[in-house]
Amino acid sequence: SQQGEEDPQALSIQEGENATMNCSYKTSINNLQWYRQNSGRGLVHLILIRSNEREKHSGRLRVTLDTSKKSSSLLITASRAADTASYFCATDGGNSGGSNYKLTFGKGTLLTVNP
Amino acid sequence: GAVVSQHPSRVICKSGTSVKIECRSLDFQATTMFWYRQFPKKSLMLMATSNEGSKATYEQGVEKDKFLINHASLTLSTLTVTSAHPEDSSFYICSATRGRDEQFFGPGTRLTVL
Fold it and tell me: Were both Cys, which of A53, A64, A89, B6 would link to B106 (CB 3.0–4.6 Å)?
């Protein structure tokens, strides 16, 4: 079953505006990651936030994590047309008994930034 | 950053044939590689986890005999779709990790089975 659930499923904004995408998950995690995917392409890692962190910044990206609510948000400030892509959150559910590290992806948010 | 390549990027084949997809970590040794499948406008679904020199671990519902995974070295894993059918048409993406956290993703392979 899907661990992460992003909302909104689709978001359309104008260049220069901020875009906020949310992700909820169900089980405990070690970390949560955000990825970007352009249509028909592979994934690009954006940012990783650990379970003991609450906020992280990287350039125009700001990620928050609320483990009590099992949710995370990705904020892209001053958006550009080139930010148009699908954005996915992915959770690492932990490493029990020496099992391999695995990511569970959410359904994604399709962001369209209009010039 | 670490680079992962996939080959081919796009393949079209006839029903009943087998198709091999390669995943390579170009500038690092990958402790583990993962294979995902993605349907149009959908999320990534993990198919299997692959470690060098050992058998792949498949996710529930993924047929081992249908999707053969060979992890020949620390930089190469292959996925073979055997006796392909139109319903196997999908976007297949691999990823590789060199540690416990970040996964580096390949550009994906678009498989179309006629």
Answer: B6
